[in-house]
Amino acid sequence: MLDLKFIRENPEVVRKALEEKAGILNLDELLFLDKQVMDLKRQTEALQAERNANAKAAGKAKPEERPALIEKGKAIGNQLAELEPQLRELEGKLKNLMYLTPTIPWEGAPVGPDDSFNVETRVHGTPHTFLFEPLDHVALMEKNGWGDLERAAKVSGSRSYILKGDLMIYEQALLRFAVDRMVAAGFTPMSVPALTREDVLYGHGQFPTARDQVYSVNQGEAFLAGTAEVLLNYLHSGEILSEAEIPKLYSALSPCFRSEAGSAGKDVRGLMRVHQFYKVEQYVLCRADLDESNRLFETMLGISEDILQALELPYRVLEVSTGDMGLGKYRQVDLETWVPSEGKYRETHSCSALLDWQARRANLRYRDEGGKVRYAYTLNNTTLATPRILVMLLENHQNEDGTVNVPEAVQPYFGKERLEAN
User: Fold this and answer.
1) What is the phi-psi region of residue 95: left when phi exceeds 0, alpha when psi lies from -120 to 50, beta otherwise?
2) For residue 375, what are the β-bridge partners?
3) 3-class DSSP state for residue 15?
4) How confident is the model at residue 102 (pLDDT cuts 50, 70, 90)?
5) pLDDT for the residue numbered 12
6) Quick check: 396 and 338 in contact, CB under 8 A?
7) CB distance 374 to 368 below 8 Å
8) What is the pLDDT of residues 19-78, one digit of tens each?
9) Catalytic-role residue among 51, 159, 258, 331
10) Over 342-396, what HEC string results?
11) CA 300 centroid distance within chain
12) pTM
């Protein structure tokens, strides 16, 4: 969320950001509620001061004066008792609207309502030209006995998958490869729970707007996280870190769950869009310094590019438009990897800088060298998500006999040079 003082002083800037990001917030309603809250707070504070002064006067008053002062104190107390629930109700409504405030996007972001306005900034590698008729990843899985999508649907429903034999081992090898890359880059490796609480999802920014993407457990007592970032972002909630303790560089491997609400008919075949998957995530909490955030953004993006290059996959880099980047993003860059069977690039990585938008929601603070307590900045990025990356690896590295070559960088983790039929 944004700083309320900033919103009061820059309503047109906020209004423009809402337009560019297709936000649903009624800014006029927020500003009106803010004024009501401030007015009620002033009334409450004035009454509290009057009650305190009256109590002191009663303590010093003559016996004959004291009953009137006591009655006056009761009357003030009754007024406060009426105002305080009104104030709490208005503050609750204001907080709900504050959750819908956008980060002001950086000036270089393409302006547009959806992904058709994303801008390709560079391409790495050239799609392979096959001397035979290549198979898509589902056909490769079926030919080699590497999975069972039909039985997975029988036991777990649509958008489920079972990996078998070499492909299952390959998935695990890739995840460990990604974790080691993050350790080498100076990130602390972590495992985090899949279950989380409602306030954690509000702190992350997934609630309230994307609630339909999250699986609820036990009538809403807990939720299944769609990314480790959700939990990493709340680890230091309520703490005041010292400036010497940051930046915090975390990398977590976790199972992830997404309902994929609203995606009916999209990517229903195979491993591209599933309800449960695994992901190695990058997360950074740093000083409220734009230069530092920009530097870390480029570092995190570079890690993901290095991984795709090590996996010997062609990819392109996209600067994401204001309408596609989401409410909380200051800047977002996506990496899309080539899918031969579709003849196009598909997203595999998404690097985002959110400035203090998440920090204000999750109460992430630090004390700077001057002693001032400030909200931190946060960033996140995909390191590797599977099984989606398997789509690209199987299709790009396949051989005519149906075997699939393993990139040299992953061979020490997998134990051989290619995937073979079970």
Assistant:
1) alpha
2) 365
3) helix
4) very high
5) 98
6) yes
7) yes
8) 999 999 999 999 999 999 999 999 999 999 999 999 999 888 889 898 899 999 999 999
9) 258
10) CCEEEEEEEEEECCCHHHHHHCCEEECCCCCEEECEEEEEEEEEECHHHHHHHHH
11) 15
12) 0.93
Q: Considering only CA atoms, which of 298, 387, 310 is closest in space to residue 125?
A: 310
Domain 115-419: CATH class, spelled out = alpha beta
- Model confidence at 264, in pLDDT bands (50, 70, 90)? low
pLDDT tens digits for range 385-411: 999 999 999 999 999 999 999 999 999
The answer to whether residue 197 is catalytic is: no
Query: Which pair of structure tokens corresponds to residue 316?
Result: 């392109």
DSSP β-ladder status, 377-386 and 344-353 = antiparallel
304: nearest Cα among 343, 328, 335? 335
CA distance 106 to 239: 29
Residue 294 identity (one-letter amino acid): N
Catalytic entry in 347, 367, 418, 420: 347
| 258 is known as an active-site residue | yes
Q: Is the pLDDT of residue 126 over 70?
A: yes
Is residue 152 within 8 A of residue 259, CB to CB? The reply is: no
Catalytic status, residue 388: yes
Catalytic residue among 176, 273, 316, 346: 273
SS3 222: strand
Burial of 275 (0-12, 13-18, 19+ CB in 10 A): middle
Among the listed residues 319, 352, 388, 395, the single catalytic one is: 388
Contacts of 118 (CB under 8 A, 6+ apart): 110, 112, 318, 319, 320, 321, 324, 334
User: Considering the domain 4-98 in this protein, what is its CATH number?
Assistant: 1.10.287.40
**Nearest alpha-carbon partner for 200 in 230, 176, 222:** 230
Instruction: Give domain limits for the chain.
Output: 4-98, 115-419
Q: What is the pLDDT of residues 115-124, one digit of tens each?
A: 999 999 999 9
**For residue 261, what pLDDT is reported?**
75
Instruction: Report d(CA 401, CA 341) in Å as an integer.
Output: 17
Q: Specify which residues 349 forms β-bridges with.
A: 335
**How far is Cα 271 from Cα 387, in angstroms, rounded to an integer?**
6
The answer to whether 4-98 and 115-419 have equal CATH topology is no
387 token code pair: 């099984």
User: Can you tell me the distance from the alpha carbon of 413 to that of 170, in angstroms, rounded to the nearest whole number?
Assistant: 8
Sign of the torsion formed by the C-alpha atoms of 366, 292, 113 and 200: negative
Active-site option among 251, 254, 321, 350: 350
